[in-house]
Amino acid sequence: MKYLKYSLPLIFILVVELLVKFNDKSICLWKILTGHECLGCGITRAFHELFHFHFQKAFEFNHAIIIVAPLLLYLWLKLILTNDVK
Q1: Are 49 and 20 in contact (CB under 8 A)?
Q2: d(C-alpha 10, C-alpha 27), whole Å
Q3: 11-68 pLDDT, tens per residue?
Q4: HSE (CB half, 13 Å, CA atoms) of 52?
């Protein structure tokens, strides 16, 4: 149970990876409800490509990946290394 709080981001990423891999339809709630892409559309596919080391494809899906990915990595590492979970 102690390590569950640290592994939740990895579990989330795995679930999203599986949804993207085996589902051709969008998993974006905004796009499903409105039919239009939101500002975050493509970020899931960008992370999917980033995890497979396809950096150019990741950037093509959503340019914000160059800001969001390092920021999330920093926050996740900070959480783990400082043990700052309440």
Answers
A1: no
A2: 18
A3: 887 887 777 677 666 666 777 788 887 777 788 889 989 999 999 999 999 999 999 9
A4: 13
How many structural domains is the chain composed of? Answer: 1
Q: Which domain holds residue 70?
A: 4-82
Pick from 23, 77, 80, 31: nearest CA to 48: 23
Distance, in Å, from the CA atom of 25 to the CA atom of 17, rounded to the nearest integer, reads 13
For 40, the token pair is 């975050």
Query: Model-level pTM greater than 0.85?
Result: no
Using CA atoms, how far apart are residues 29 and 34, in angstroms rounded to an integer?
Answer: 8
